[in-house]
Task: inverse folding
DNA sequence: AAGTTATTTTGAACAACGTTCACAACATAA
DNA sequence: TTATGTTGTGAACGTTGTTCAAAATAACTT
């Protein structure tokens, strides 16, 4: 009984060290010998609590996703409270969609996207590790991981249903994923210096522009 | 004079081999000893014609970008020809923007994006290598590389000017980059199996939906 | 053509990596 | 204490990218 506890502690220590190293150097900062030294154990000990270094990276990534989820939830809820008393607007008779509801849905999408952008900007390396990490040919992500990703899309689906009320759930899910991907693309290439850096303020503005236009275009049809 | 020619040949052979290996295994397929064997030279010989393996990857990526540029150019030109005789539509008096011109600009954006998607789908590994490859801390991309990227954005800027005639060149450039990033995000996450695969047909439809909505939203304001 | 010098290519050697495994250290039970 | 099973260790293995003394080749001189 003692050993499992000790191993749990070691695993925790390793995850913390791995997180620190990713923050400092990105995925390249994950090295067995370094982690062992930082955790105060032998190199071989790592493989007592973890199958791979990949598993360690996945553990870090899972926590990063949880952090992100929490922040998105906070951003979404902060809004929900602020809107109490806004009142049920007058339904537009032709489209069946309330104008102010549409505006609010777009605003919600923008809030979520800006939150995502800020998270990515604040925890760049840890966040990029999620997308840079590739499992060795053949192995696939654990279920929990995919589950967490669906959670993220759920945030988007809610306001999306206001814009496109008639959409089948399947299509709605796909569109949510697409919107996420678009914002993700803007974020990841924006924070990258490969194409020449863009300021955070500019990125915010671009995201607002794109999502607002998208909201207008999507709610019109 | 003979040696420089020989080296040029070796470099070419290595680039070809590197391209083949990236197609087969992604960036992980780039290994000094394998490349040397395939090119029929000693491992050390590689470093006579190239500073790094990174330089080799960059050479492959540059060619990939050229391929992409050619295909985009073909897609853009095919359209220009098809539109001859379409006629100058009636200018909308209020916005100063011709309705059919707007439609055509959106159609052009869609064509470019679909072309990008197809290129990415057809040459997935080679295309992903462009974005997966990271230079070692500090070194930056050669000028030619950044130049090629600006070329890509130029394709987008042209139809974009129809949608937003009043936009300052600086802002237009930024928006073009943003649109590219959005389409890129949809493409790269769509082709990735990490979030569960999406069919190419679905991806096409999503890109059409998003760009059409974006075009509508952008031209309205 | 032969000898001398400079250049170019070579592959063994090096450092650093993830991972493994025979063994030392330890705990537990008899 | 002794015997037995379990756990942790770090040297060792197989692969990386890269280097460098030496061998091979080219270039030049007489």
Result:
């Amino acid at each position: 009984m003692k050993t499992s506890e000790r191993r749990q502690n070691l695993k925790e220590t390793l995850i913390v060290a791995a997180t620190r190293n990713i923050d400092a150097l990105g995925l390249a900062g994950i090295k067995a010998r370094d982690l062992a030294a930082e955790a105060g154990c032998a190199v071989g000990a790592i493989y007592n609590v973890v199958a791979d270094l990949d598993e360690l990276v996945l553990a870090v990534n899972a926590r990063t996703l949880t952090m992100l989820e929490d922040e998105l939830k906070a951003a979404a809820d902060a809004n929900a409270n602020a809107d109490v008393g806004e009142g049920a607007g007058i339904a537009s008779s032709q489209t069946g969609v309330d104008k102010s509801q549409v505006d609010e849905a777009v605003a919600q999408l923008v809030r979520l996207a800006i939150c995502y952008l800020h998270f990515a900007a604040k925890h760049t390396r840890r966040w990029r590790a999620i997308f840079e990490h590739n499992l060795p040919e053949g192995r696939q992500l654990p279920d929990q991981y995919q589950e967490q990703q669906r959670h993220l899309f759920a945030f988007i689906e809610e306001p999306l249903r206001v814009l496109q009320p008639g959409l089948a759930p399947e299509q709605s899910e796909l569109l949510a994923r697409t919107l996420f991907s678009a914002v993700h693309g803007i974020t990841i290439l924006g924070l990258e210096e490969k194409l020449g850096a863009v300021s955070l303020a500019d990125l915010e503005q671009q995201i607002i522009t794109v999502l607002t236009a998208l909201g207008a275009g999507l709610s019109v049809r």
Notes: Residues 2, 31-33, 43-44, 46-47, 52-53 of chain A lie near DNA strand C (CB under 10 Å from a C1'). The two ends of chain A are 63 Å apart (CA to CA). The interface with chain B takes residues 132, 140-141, 146, 149, 174-175, 177-186, 188-190, 193-196, 198, 202, 206, 209-210, 212-218, 220-221 of chain A (CB under 8 Å). Confidence is low (pLDDT under 50) at residues 84-93 of chain A.
